[in-house]
Write a structure and sequence with these properties.
Length: 496
């Protein structure tokens, strides 16, 4: 009889345990189902505010906590500020803050230990939540976003401050951590039960962690999606602005090209279309601008029967401004030239006009000569121009004539000197050029220089002016290779 009673008692205990386990399992299944539904609702939300509101509802309805505050982390002020709450009197305002330092208590410890904390005994004089909300026990849980491969471990920061952790205070360590790129904590929850005062169980913590961890992932994904959307919007705006800028640049470039082409046409019109070709005078000229328009100028023109003006000028720099200065030189030369004034006086008159009436930072080097084929004499002066060559073809000799004055357009007194050069007709060759020819460089940085020009000029004395001009330019191009010219090049070969 006793055995039967013991057997019945044992069966009854087992049935009670099974019923209890079944009840617990049903409760867990119901909780999991509610969490799944809550997660679906959070996924449907499109703003952080609506997701946080849903979290608050879940904490209240599923886990039966009636007071919750979500604190956000203010990195700049190094404190916690209330972001959302329920079950709390509306007197809590944004200015209710908790320092993130060691004095912040358990809620800040939870952040920097990277785990939840259950506070069952408080220190009334020190605890923020006891003093403010009369909370004797509560739970704090960090809201953590995605975990990086380099995420800091509890109590220690990996990365740029690691080597100094042993020598700084706890609060300095915390400040360093908050500023680290690996710090992924979004906020922290304070949770308690004011009405039921029921103790926090392991099931409660498991439920809360499940809700809060799911919400952290959703918030983090939403943040990344929002950032990507904003980046896409910004990129589209930037692309639109870039298209507008590109269109404006194309229009401006087209206008510049039209203006340059027009300037080039004008400049080409300033250069001589026809150079005298007589039994007494044979000339070949070449002009190669470094840009669309340049600052070199040359001309050979008849002043009187049998008397010719010969000029080569180089305006500093190149481009439109130099071309404009060059055009002024031509206009002034043609308006002032006469049979009474020699080269020196003519250039001095031009310089006076530049100094008194034309404001420019440019200067001009000029070689100007008058060739009298009747009297067989050349009168010339050089205002800062590079050396020119007189060749006697009969005895294969060369005389280099250097500048005897200063640049045009810089000083009132150019200190010019006019020279005479009597010659025997049919034996003389004059090589005129600008420094773009001799100062051109190859890939090694070596200049073509005057010596190479003199050598090739001497080797071609028996050739025509056309052949000589071509051979000199070919020699220079071969020396420089594919290096682009940085200055305008002018070359005149004159036989007389």
């Amino acid at each position: 009889m006793n055995d039967n009673n013991e057997l019945k008692s044992s069966f009854k205990a087992q049935i009670d345990r099974l019923q209890q386990d079944t009840t617990t399992l049903k409760s867990q299944m119901m909780t999991n189902s509610l969490i799944d539904e809550l997660t679906k609702v959070m996924h449907s939300k499109t703003t952080p505010e609506s997701i946080i509101k849903t979290i608050m509802l879940g904490i209240n309805e599923i886990a039966s906590f009636d007071r919750v505050i979500l604190f956000e982390i203010d990195k700049k002020s190094f404190c916690l500020k209330p972001q959302a709450w329920f079950g709390i009197d509306e007197s809590i305002q944004k200015e209710y803050t908790i320092p993130l330092g060691f004095e912040g208590g358990e809620i800040t410890d939870a952040i920097f230990l990277n785990r939840h904390l259950v506070v069952e005994e408080v220190f009334p004089e020190e605890d923020f939540f006891y003093k403010t909300f009369n909370s004797n026990s509560y739970l704090v849980i960090p809201l953590i976003g995605r975990v990086l491969a380099t995420q800091w471990t509890p109590g220690k920061l990996k990365g740029k401050f690691e080597d100094t952790q042993e020598t700084i205070s706890e609060n300095e360590r915390r400040k360093n951590l908050v500023q680290s790129k690996d710090f992924q904590t979004i906020g922290v929850f304070w949770i308690d039960r004011k009405q039921t005062k029921a103790p926090v169980t392991s099931e409660d913590i498991s439920t809360l962690l499940s809700i809060i961890n799911q919400s952290a992932i959703i918030l983090d994904n939403l943040s990344m999606f929002t950032a990507l959307e904003q980046a896409n919007v910004d990129l589209q705006k930037a692309n639109k602005k870039q298209r507008i800028v590109n269109r404006e640049l194309r229009n401006a470039n087209a206008k510049i090209n039209r203006d340059l082409q027009h300037a080039r046409s004008i400049q080409q019109g300033l250069l001589p279309l026809h150079i005298p070709d007589t039994p007494e005078l044979s000339i070949r000229a070449s002009y190669i601008p470094a840009d669309a328009v340049g600052g070199d100028y040359y001309d050979v023109f008849e002043i009187a029967p049998g008397v010719y003006g010969i000029i080569v000028a180089d305006v500093s720099g190149h481009g439109v401004s130099s071309a404009l200065i060059m055009s002024m030189v031509k206009v002034l030369l043609k308006s002032l030239v006469n049979t009474e004034d020699g080269p020196q006086k003519t250039l001095e008159k031009i310089n006076d006009i530049f100094m008194n009436e034309i404001t420019t930072d440019n200067f001009i080097t000029v070689f100007y000569a008058t060739l009298d084929t009747n009297a067989h004499v050349m009168h010339f002066t050089s205002a800062g121009h590079c050396p020119i060559f007189f060749f006697d073809k009969s005895n294969k000799t060369c005389e280099k004539v250097k500048a005897d004055g200063l640049f045009l357009g810089v000083f009132p007194d150019m200190m010019l000197k006019e020279s005479d050069y009597p010659y025997k007709p049919g034996n003389m060759r004059l090589i005129l050029y600008t420094d773009g020819l001799t100062e051109a460089r190859n890939r090694k940085g070596d200049m073509y220089d005057i010596d190479r020009l003199e050598q090739i000029s001497m080797e071609t004395l028996d050739n025509t002016t056309v052949e000589t001009n071509k051979m000199i330019l070919e020699s220079q191009r071969k020396f420089c290779g594919k290096v682009r010219a940085s200055d305008d090049i002018t070359l005149l070969v004159i036989d007389f």
